[in-house]
Design a protein that fits this description.
Order of helices and strands: EHEHEHEHEHHEEHEHE
CATH superfamily: NAD(P)-binding Rossmann-like Domain
Low-confidence stretches: none
Number of strands: 9
Number of domains: 1
Number of helices: 8
Mean pLDDT: 96
Distance between the termini: 31 Å
CATH architecture: 3-Layer(aba) Sandwich
CATH class: Alpha Beta
Shape: globular
CATH topology: Rossmann fold
Radius of gyration: 17 Å
Helix content: 40-55%
Strand order of the largest sheet: 3-2-1-4-5-6-9
Strand content: 15-25%
Structural class: alpha/beta
Length: 246
């Protein structure tokens, strides 16, 4: 299939997990990609593993720093001539109960997820509005819908991404730019597999489909939202959860 043929995309946090799965899926659909990730070595390893030639370039990018995100946008435009899709995926966790969570842990998670998403959305939108076209896909989480113990920082950030997405969608619709969010549930990734086994098992028991999701299953939704199949879709939050917390 060629749902994204010749479109230029940036994927933040694109060197592993859901981000890398999104890069792989976008490439199969014909896109050209900028992998923007804070880990330069992981970026290079990801690009080498993809063996996509000049269809993939890498940029070292801390999404909390606007100049870094602007650098990724500039690299995409200078290399591919345009920016059609922005996937704001970069994220971290610093889980702790409110009693034990430090201000630094709270601020780190808010900065990476919420400020990082805002940086990516606004800087990509500035290019897309000039083109009169584009799609922005923001990664929220089911944690932003229901809230999880030990994640006041993460749940707050992911809920904030929902509000940011809806507000940006309203601002950008008349410029031809669509903005949507994905809220994954329990997805198998290096981050989630680091959970203690008893926590993983408890989460698994809440899922009607009785399994964890795979990163590629989130990436396929990102392809839909980025493509013309979703040409009349904006301001939405698509849950990819196996039915958890319906």
């Amino acid at each position: 299939m060629d749902l994204l043929r010749d479109r230029a995309a940036i994927v933040t946090g694109g060197a592993q997990g859901i981000g890398l799965a999104t890069v792989e899926t976008f490439l199969r659909e014909g896109a050209r990609i900028v992998i923007a990730d804070r880990d330069a070595d992981a970026c290079r390893s990801a690009a080498d593993s993809l063996d996509a030639g000049d269809r993939v370039v890498t940029v070292t990018c801390d999404v909390t720093v606007a100049a870094d995100v602007q650098g990724a946008v500039d690299r995409c435009v200078s290399t591919f001539g345009r920016l059609d899709v922005m996937v704001n995926n970069a994220g971290i966790t610093r889980d702790a109960t409110m009693r034990t969570m430090t201000e630094e842990q709270f601020e780190q998670v808010i900065a990476v997820h919420l400020k990082g998403c805002w940086n990516g959305t606004r800087l990509a939108a500035a290019v897309m509005r000039g083109q009169r076209s584009g799609a922005i896909v923001n990664l929220s989480s089911i944690s932003g819908k229901v809230g999880f113990v030990g994640q006041t920082n993460y749940s707050a950030a992911k809920a904030g991404i929902v509000g940011l997405t809806k507000a940006a969608a309203k601002e950008m619709a008349h410029h031809g730019v669509r903005v949507n969010a994905i809220a994954p549930g329990l997805i198998r990734s290096p981050m989630t597999e680091a959970m203690p086994e008893h926590i993983w098992d408890a989460k698994l028991a809440e899922i009607p489909m009785q399994r964890a999701g795979e990163a590629a299953e989130v990436a396929s939704v990102a392809v839909f939202l980025a493509s013309d199949l979703a040409s009349y879709v904006t301001g939405t939050v698509t849950e990819v959860t196996g039915g958890r917390y319906m």
